[in-house]
User: Fold Sugar ABC transporter permease from Planosporangium mesophilum.
Amino acid sequence: MRHGKRLFIATFLVPPLVLYALFVVSPYVQVFQLATTDWGGLSPEAHFVGVDNLRRLFADHYVWNALRNNAILLVVMPVVTIVLGLFFASMLMVGGRRGRAGVRGVRGSAVYRLVYFFPQVLSVAIIGVLWKEMYAPNSGLINGALRAVGLGSLAHPWLGDPNLAFWCVLAVMVWSNVGFYVVLFGAGMQSIPRDIYEAALLDGAGRAATLARITLPLLWDTVQVAWVYLAIVALDGFALVQIITEGGPGLRTDVIGLRLYSTAFGEAKFGYASAIGVAMLFLTLSVAVLALRLTKRDRVEL
Assistant:
């Protein structure tokens, strides 16, 4: 009987593990090997260069420029997304008027959640193309709306301005992610007893105090996971940046993912690009661990 059980488990477990090792683990191992070569990506010839790619990486100002942009995204994007997500979720779930039923959400909250979540249904490619057209200086919806209401003086070549292009991309990243966390935080708030909010309101606590002292501590585990996930998204950002600005103008919106892509497919330096990928892997793991450490706190039980 025990032998049959082991055979049954092996039959269903071994094939997925083999496929995972072949198509997921194997490419990671190959990247580490390629990072020590000067492979160009086309010819089978690849010469071993050891840690030369790593030394070059530390001296590459294009890489440091991309990392600087990623660092700004890492600081700003998770904070803004989580704050907006908590605010909207709080207003939808407990922001309605207090009546006989006590604390409740606003009327039509299900429709609002659907609207907020809609960007998650769209692919990254569609979001990038959509916002690139909206930012267009002549035919874009943003400048067109400004001109329609008599504010044509505020119309701007948003993606062509080196001082604004990065923040335009950041706004798109927040817009495309905040809806998911509105739904996520809203689901977490549904498990918080309404009696707690009732007691807080009877004691004279306002909406802001209720959010900061009740909702946030009770949702901290969810916020912690959101912070780690958004930090990983901020360290990537490749797809949106590549579609909307292609790293310009003047590499003001360049990120490390796009720098890796440009190095490999634009300059045909797959060995050096692999070194960038390895550095990006360790950087992402370090940021995830650091985020978990910094956001660790005692769990609040109901």
The chain has a mean pLDDT of 87. DSSP finds 13 helices and no strands in the chain. Residues 16 and 22 are 10 Å apart (CA to CA). The radius of gyration is 24 Å.
